[in-house]
Every structure is written in structure tokens, then in C-alpha cells.
Amino acid sequence: MAAAVLGLRPSRTPRRSRGGAVSRLDQAAQAQRQALGPDASVWVAASAGTGKTKVLTDRLLALMLDGTDPARILCLTFTRAAAAEMANRVNDRLAAWATLPPGALAEQLVELTGRFPQEEEIARARRLFARVLDIPWGAKIATIHAFCQSLLRRFPLEAGVPPEFAVIEERSAAETLTEAAESIIAMARSGHAVRLAEALALVARHTQEERFAELLTALASNRSKLRAALAGGDMALRARLAAVFSVPEGATADGLTEEFCTAGACDEAALRAAAAALAEGSSSDRERGRILARWCAAPERRCELLDDYIGAFLTAEGAILQRLITKAASDRSRCDARGVLETEARRIRRFLDQRAGAMLVESSMALVRLGDAVLRAYEDRKRLHGLLDFDDLVLKALELLRRPGIAPWVLFKLDGGLDHMLIDEAQDTNPEQWSVVAALAEEFFTGEGGGERIRTIFAVGDAKQSIYSFQRADPREFVAMRQHFEARVNAARQEWRTVPLEISFRATEPPLQAVDAVFQSVMAADGVALDGTAIRHVAARAGHAGLVELWPPVMPEPDEELDLNAVSGMRQRSAEPRTRLARAIAAAIAGWLAAGERLEARDRAIRPGDIMVLVRRRNLFVADLIRALKQKNVPVAGADRLVLTQQLAVQDLIALGRFLLLPEDDLNLATVLKGPLFGFSEDELFLLAHERGEQKLWERLRRFAGEDLVMHAAYERLAELRGRADFVPPFELYGEILGAGGGRRAMLERLGPEASDPIEEFLALALAYEREHVPSLQGFLHWLVAGEIEVKRDFGERQRDEVRILTVHGAKGLEAPVVFLPDTMQLPDWPPRLLWSEAEGLPLWCARKNLEARFYSDERGKFRARQLQEYRRLLYVALTRAQDRLYV
Fold it and tell me: Regarding the domain delimited by 643-792, which CATH topology (the fold level of the hierarchy) does it fall under?
């Protein structure tokens, strides 16, 4: 495949000339040390690959080395994996300090601080490991959800939560929300709640059951916005919605229509004159004139004639027709016919927008009323069982830190325990999480909390990598919080530093130059470079070989004629472009591995584990690529997320469970026998199933059990399992099948090691089901199949020597020597129908595009602009995963 090669440096070792890699390393070290000063609050803007995690770790170590008690430092990370990695890095460094010879330890401390340590500092460094081990639960390094959970555990009564609350996973939370929705729908249908019934009827008119569930989930994830919108009551919310849509308060769509059609609502005399002028024009003029004449002559029928009347002035898209009257007819008219028609067209436009606005007020209020009732029922169910979901952890903690009369005491108790806060991946922090951080840091810079000791806040992040808007992260919030903390620190007369990190330790020069070139364009940089400054990266690995290739798009091909022996007129369908692209990538990788293609920068051959393929979505291309790689015998790890019930191992276990519940199900029994658990051959299964008439397969197996050893063993094992299925919990049943029964070994031998993760997840879910439900095999199978559960495979924790295929979101924080970006030709989907107005924070629901009012369209346009900005940031993240080679 032809390719455009942007850059290749063949040298195998980094050049160490003046101004080259060595000086860049010195520059990077100097910038990183600026971030370590324990007396300053620091905001680090770290571009991709610039050593963000190292800076965070070094900051934590520098604070401890300066004499800060490790128990008085709080480090908040974005994921549990990041928290674990951070804790491991800190513990490894401290453990090394405890045992290093004095000279080696002094050298490491010089590298950390930029100065030679005193004897007291060396002695303190040796003691830090033991000090951290003495702290209950170790150093305070946790996700913000874990911290909020610990805060609620410490102050449950003050927070208004059960002291022994449990945190429910997403699956259980979704089930509880569904149960709450069903209870509210049943109440609405019973006739005992008139307003709910009206709201349900309106919502049901515009949406389907699946979409309604999505709307409820969207409301639940934005419950803080919903609460804020309903703070003054639903009538106040309705008034605010009417105001933004320019709809008279209390107006309805039907009422506005009647008002528009009322006699005297328009200048009927002028319209009659215009109709007369139209009657002398072209055929289209005459038709329009007849419509106007009927409108003026029959006020009582105007509601019936409304659609035709609107069509005489506006296009199907709602724009005013460019030619309302021909020039000849206009010139002959005795009145200003064109002006009259244009005035009426504008009146119609205003009416339609008002009517659409009234409909949106009604639909939005109906959804809010129904959603609020469902969320209240959801909260009641959680409260009844002493449960909190993940969003509750943050929201309840925030309420605690803001509660009058109690918050000062809580802050005092925490204030005595915190001197420094560190926030990792700050660009991914959402507004509620930032509010928690701000509340915790409030006493750092005011009142007695300021005190004489220096207390600091440290944040590291990159607005260019903010790609989690679906979790309500917003890069503008990242910028706003920097400004907030900078103002607070300066007002307290403390030191503030903004430290940019631009020297990349990850990539060679060609990939970084390509990134800079892509985002030189003002359009491409929109939403990526928030402050308008040029995006610039400097490679610490100057002189290392690198490569960027742009492959031409794979276009559809015409269908090919079949050979002459085929049926006349038949055509052979060509492979889809995505399939041909997958085959091209697989062929390139297989060719490299077969030929021993070398990574020049590393002076070795390319291995499968060096290669990462990044996609925006897990679509059919991923399946095509996995298939193509396997056909080329290239080791491939598969996708980073798997739908559990689509995995062969899990399908075999489900089929076994269904057979145990219903032995008469021939298909499930055949699936079980042919699968890895019993391993029947095609011939054995044919012998069992052929010429059996109406006889069930289970009965046939019982008959042949006395004649064939293989079938005897299968029958005895299945009969034994049938006898236990009704009396043992699902986890115990499947645990025995996979463990002592040898099922796991048989599955891994047949399906390969990639079946291990789905099997483990299957057993974990069986155990989770028993904790939350009355254990039964039938209930578990129904719960499992209905959930469409995804398994996340963490390629960052244990990487085998296999090609990895991930989404860009899943690859955040990862890197690879060779990266393919095959999914670059499609824009993101259009915005959802439920929006929140940007300035007012109001819920806006429009079920269909033809019902949109102008204000809603404007808000949807703003959302689309933000969506495209994140799309560009997603591109930035994808491009910056490459270390040596990038293929687009």
C-alpha cells in the first residue's frame, strides 16, 4: 500500500551533541524541579509523554523529604489503577532509600531536589519507608470516589448516610433504577397520580421504552443539575423554560395555535390585496393566492387550513421562501404585495418558534416530572437497603462539606489532618469533584487553617487530553479551577507557580512533529489549545529513529463479475472497505514479523507486543482485524472490552445451565456436548441425533449410555449436575464444574488463554448475584443475559507479547512503539436529544428534530461544537500514544 512518509531518522542511538538530547533532558529536569518546591502551590500543564506521573511521585517524595508527615498529604487520582501505580512507585522509591549506600542515596536525592542533601535529610529519607508503613492503610493515595467513601465512613451521621452503607456497582444501580422506574410507571397507570399519568402519556407519545431508559440514565447521571433546576419547584422551572423559549407564561401549543388562527390576528385586508395580486401572476403565484384567499375567507377553518397556509410561505425546513411572489405580479400589484407577504412570513416564523417552544416546555417538564419521581423512588430504594452508588459518594461528601453548622467542624477535623493536596489527571475532574477539592482546600488559605505552616495544592493535567465529557469533565472547568486556586493562593500571599512541561520522553521527533503540524491549523486546534497558544512538543529522544506514514483511504470497489461458469447476471460482492483495511494492516504486521523488521530506535526486531491499534469505537472493523490477524498467525490480545455473553466460553456455560433447567432443550444439549466441556466429535453428535424421530436428545443420550463409554461418561456427568442444580447456588455449581470437574482446563485447551478472563468474570458475577439476590440458577442466567455485561481487560497491568486493539479512551495513559490509527474518517454522532442549556443549566428535551425551537437548536449547535472539540482532543490523545512509529 502506498504511503506518505513524513520522517525517518536512521540513527540507532540518541545524538548527544550540544543543544541536543542532553540539554533537553536538563531542561526537562529543571522544569520538573520547579514543580517540586514544597513551599509553593503548583499547577502543572503536562503535555503527553512529559513525565506527569514522575512529577506527581517526585512532588510527594519531596514533601515527605521536607519534613511533612506523610499522613498529612492527600493525593487524589482518576482511577484505581493510577492510585495503585502511584502507591507502588512511592513505596519502591522509599524502600530503595532505606537500603541504598550513602553515596547512592545522596545521588538520588540530588537528582530529586537539584542540591546536595544534608545529613539530616539523608537520615530522614531512610526513615520515611518505615513511617509510611506505620500509617494505617498506608499513604493517602486514592481515587476521589474512594476518598469520599472514607469521608462518609468517618462522618456518617453528619452526612446523613447509614453508618454501614454499601456501595453498589453500576449493574446493580441500573437494576435499582429500572425497578424504581417500573414502580413509578405502575403508579401513573393506576390513576392515583394524575400529573404523573399526564407526564407519562406525553413522554410515551414521543419515545420508545429503550430510549426512555437512556433518558432516565442521563437524568440520573446529571442529578445535581436536575436538583439545581428544581430548587425553586417545578412551576419556577416551567417559568424559566418559558422565558428562554420566549413563550408567554402559561401558554400551550394548542392555545398559541388558536390565537394565531383567530380572526383579526393578522392584517386580513392587506393579505386579501396580496392574494388578488398573486391571482394575476404565475401558476405558483395563483396557487399561493388561492391559499391566502381561503385563509382570509374562513376564520373558523383556519386550524384545519394551517399546514397549507404555512407551506405557502415557508420551506419544509422552516425557512422563508426566496420568492413569495414573481416580479411581474409584484410590479402589477396596487399594494406592496411583496412586503405584505414577507411580513406575514415573519409572523408565521415567530408563531412556529413559539409553538415549538411551548411544546418543548411541555415535553421537558413532563420528562423532568417523571424523571424526578423515578429518582426519588430510586433514592428511597437505596436508602431502604443502606446503599449508595458512585455518584452518591461525591454528592453526599459535597453536601457534608457544605452543610451549615456541621461543615466547619468536619473541615476542622480534616484541617488538622491535611497540609498538602495533590490532584492527578486534573483535566478529567468533573464539576462536583472539583467542588469537593475546593471545599477541602478552603481552609488552606483562610482563617486559622492558614496558620504559620505552608499548605499547598498541586494539580497536574493537560486540557488537550480532556476526553471524558460523558463523565461531565470539561476542560473549561480545568482552566477555571486553575484561576480560582491561583487567586486564592495569591490572596493569601503565598507562592503560586504555573509550570508547563513540553519535553516528551515518550516519542521520537517525527511523531511529535506530526502532532504539531496537525494542530497548527486554527480549525484543528479549536478546543485543543484552549488559551490560543501554539501546540509545541520537544523530543527528549532527539536523534532516535522515528516514522510517520499516512495511508490513502480505502475506497469502496465496484462489484466484480463472477466467472463464466456462474449463473448469468450474477455479481460477486466486493469486500467492504473496513475488511480490506483490516487485511492490509494484518498483512503489514505479518510481513514485519516474518522479515524481522527492526525498530531502529531500539536496535531490535519488532515484536507483536510493540503494536497497538487504536479505534474510536468497538465496531465491525475490530472483529475484522482480529480475524485477519489470526488468519496471518499474528498473536493478538483481542479487544480491550468484551461483551461477556458473546464469549464462547460463557455461551457454553450458559447453554449448560439452560440444559440443566430444561433437559428437553435439544439445541442447548447439542451445544454442550459439542463444546469443550464434553468434546463430542461431529460423528458422535450425528450418531446421537440422526434418525431419532420425536425422541429428545437427552433420552437418546440415556439410551446410548449403555452402549458407548464416551456417551456413558457424558450422561452420568450431566445427570449428576441435574441432580445438584436445584439445590446448590450458581457459584458453587459452576465453581465445581470449572474447578474439580476440569471444565476450566478443557475450555482453555480448546479456546486458548483468552478465555480465562471471561471465565473469571463469569464466576465473579455468579458470586455477586448471590450477594444481592436469592440464589437460583434460573434467576442468575436471566440476570446475566439481560445485563449485556462488558469485561474490561486492562492491557496496562499485564501485557503479553500480542498486538493490542483498544479504543482511544482505553489507551489513555498507555503507549506503544508502533501505533495504527485506522478509524479516522468519521465524525462523532450527533448530540443526544436531552440537553442542558449552557448558561442556565436547564433540561431541554426535544424528541424529534422537526419539533426543535430556535433556542434548542442554538443549544444543540453549542453542544455539537463542544463535541467536535473533544473529537479533536481525542485525535491528540491517539496521536501521542506512539513512541517510534505512527501509521494513520
Answer: PCRA; domain 4 (1.10.486)
